[in-house]
Amino acid sequence: MRTTKSVACLLTVALVPMLTACGNADPLPAQTGVTGHSRDWRSTASSEDGSKRVAAEFGGHVYTSSDGGRHWTARLADQQREWVSVSSSADGSRLVAAERQGDIYASNDGGVTWTARGSNGFWRAVSLSADGTQLTVVDWRSGKSHTSANGGVSWTANRDGGGRS
Hints:
By secondary structure, this protein is mostly beta strands. The chain is built from one helix and twelve strands, in the order αββββββββββββ.
């Protein structure tokens, strides 16, 4: 378990700068299907083997790939949103995405369909356990973290925070 978390953290730390390093240039290779300038990538995650990936674009969409990042599909594409964080289960079948000021969305089919989970919040980060059932989100305004033991169906606020205004 510790190795899996370490690998996931390493991938996130390594991939987010790679996605944003190009500034206004296209941050992903053109063949990926995610093209255009001025994309504001905020978060990325992958399955344990790296074959399934998810990326969040602030002011845009969530994208998924099932071929190690060679090709990408826009998800939750009904409107552009301020996505700030994504996470993946170890097998990549369960995903979670958080809006900066909005909902948390969960997928149980690798990102094909999504369900809003949790109430509106000022989300900063989201994480998902290896089996995809345990979720944690952080609300930057209240300073509280919230956990769910059932895939986001219900939530528990974990600590008092000195909210920011």
